[in-house]
Amino acid sequence: MNIDDLKNAWNDDVSDETPEISIEQKNKINLPLEKIRKNMRMEFWSTVGILLFGFAVVWIPVPEAPFKFKFYLTVLLFSMVIVVSFFFSKFFKLYNNISNPMMNTYDSLKDLMYQFDLNKQYYLSFMLSFVPFLVCELIIVVEFIPHPKPLSDFKVATTILSTLAIGLFGLFLLGKYWYRMFYGKYVQQIENILLEFEKK
Fold first, then answer.
1. What tens digit of pLDDT does each residue of 104-134 get?
2. Nearest-angstrom CA–CA distance, 139 and 159
3. How buried is residue 127: exposed, middle or buried, by Cβ count under 10 Å (0-12/13-18/19+)?
4. For the whole model, what pTM was predicted?
5. Predicted confidence (pLDDT) per residue in 141-159, tens digit
6. What phi and psi values does residue 20 have, to the nearest 5 degrees?
7. H-type alpha helices, the chain
8. What is the C-alpha to C-alpha distance for residues 150 and 131, in angstroms, rounded to an integer?
9. How far apart are the C-alpha atoms of 41 and 44, rounded to whole Å?
10. Cα 71–167–171 angle (5° rounding)?
11. Closest CA to 167 of 195, 199, 127
């Protein structure tokens, strides 16, 4: 096949129209998309509220709390803000894409499903990224909270390691459950519409 044949074949492929989505299908898609947008907004503002509450709790004037304790927790919270900001910047891209959906074609719907799948991975990574913060908070608490009798090195090590194992497993399960409840079931609705579209 020569160059002209390749060009003609390419032009024929490009000129083939991608199937368009009907008005009825667009309406079916808009409902779960609006639910996803609403849940993303709720999650963003609740995360901001939790972080602000964390800063307020750390700096409540408690005479017994040493400055180092408050300082370490503040640094930890600022680190959490950086991690949260990174992941929310990824989520905002998806939010912007579904806020002005251009879903006129089958290909655009497939692209949207790809973005949902990618953001699911981001979401699980987001939940698991809190494990180190959990461990650091535990270390700070173990070091600064007074105990009736000093903890042995073995007890400190087993407490931190068991918390890490339980925290990792718990956050993974929580992330999967949370995603399914707030996003997954709506993504599934859109995927079902895509499957219906493929059968036609």
1. 566 777 788 888 888 888 888 888 888 888 8
2. 9
3. buried
4. 0.73
5. 777 777 777 777 888 888 8
6. -90, 155
7. 3-15, 23-58, 67-99, 106-128, 131-144, 153-179, 185-199
8. 26
9. 5
10. 105
11. 127
- Measured between alpha carbons, how far is 149 from 171 in angstroms, rounded to an integer? 31
Structure tokens of 61? 């004037």
Half-sphere exposure (CA, 13 Å, Cβ side) for 164?
10
Rg from Cα positions in the chain: 24
- Amino acid identity, position 62: V
Q: What is the rounded CA–CA span in Å between residue 135 and residue 138?
A: 5
Assigned token pair, 105: 């074609």
What is the structure's pLDDT at 21? 59
Phi–psi pair at 146, nearest 5 degrees: -70, 140
Return the closest-CA partner of residue 99 out of 115, 85, 110. 115
